[in-house]
Amino acid sequence: MNVTDLAHPAEEVAPRLLGAVLTHETPEGTVAIAITETEAYSGTADPASHAYRGRTTRNAVMFGPAGHMYVYRSHGLHWCANIVTGTDGIASAVLIRAGRIVEGEELARRRRGSTVETPRLARGPGNFCQALGITAEHDGANLLKGSPVALSDGEQVPADLIRIGPRVGVSKAHDWQHRFYLAGDRTVSAYRLSPRAKPSTGA
Predict the structure, then answer these.
(1) Which pTM was predicted?
(2) Phi and psi of 77, rounded to 5°?
């Protein structure tokens, strides 16, 4: 995809981000990860979105402009990274769930642990951020210009390799078909239904 073309709803951008690359340059070195799994969150129309109840200090980045990074802490343990999409002023973001290391595997392994299997280095949103070195300081980073964290085009992903399914681990709107991933890719995380999930209707 053309990574500068992010001004569309999250559910449209999410599958097109598969194969795109997030790169983080640090004094330690550079790590680059090709995205293999994403989830779309549609803002105030989406009960599972952080922006569902409106704009706050925490979620302000989600409201645009597109191309910035929204970073949040999950369960007080892990950082999670989202790419903001859509129209400025309307919350929309794509959670990056997993990826394949294409540069800097040694550094990613030091961050994740020497015994972690290669496909698991960036499997899951928290592991992805840990491998890439993403923390709260990157919230709001412009991924398209002037930031050490950058989004770029990667290899074109054939459409027949893209799978669609329900989102992982969320209790609200969990059955929305807003998760996109590469079929058969070992870096993709396993599906897990939240024990608090209830039947829902919607997208």
Answers:
(1) 0.93
(2) -120, -50
